[in-house]
Amino acid sequence: MHPETPYEITTLTGEPQPIPRPVMLPEEIPPGVAWVTLPGGARTLAYTPPPTAPAPQPVAARPVPTWAKTTALLAPTIGGGIAAAGIGLSYAAPGLIAMSHALWATVALIAAGAIALPVLLSACRRGAGAGPAHITQNITAAGLFGRASGTINHH
Question: Structure pTM?
Fold first, then answer.
């Protein structure tokens, strides 16, 4: 072992070989280049990969908000309710159709009554009397702001 070299490299022949000292000073070495020791023991300059940025720290998982939990729990319930309502309407459809026909018949009866009732009443009045009643009214007043009086005569 040499006194100036702290390490020894032995070759296949078993003879110790000193590690050669760098020829360049560390401040002379350009960026991206470094001294490396090869598997055979020789030291040389070589390009080294640039240091990679450390991996970002994983973001801590935030708890799920209460409104999201509530919505997630209500969604199947509301969907099931809508499905049940659809099934109920499919079973009720024949009855609903019959009720709509009955309502249209009621509307037609009311419309016919609204037209037929005045015609019927006027026909009954004509047949009962000799004609329409005559009313005569006489009104008299004395002066511009005087009190008015009158008489009504039925004929």
Answer: 0.29
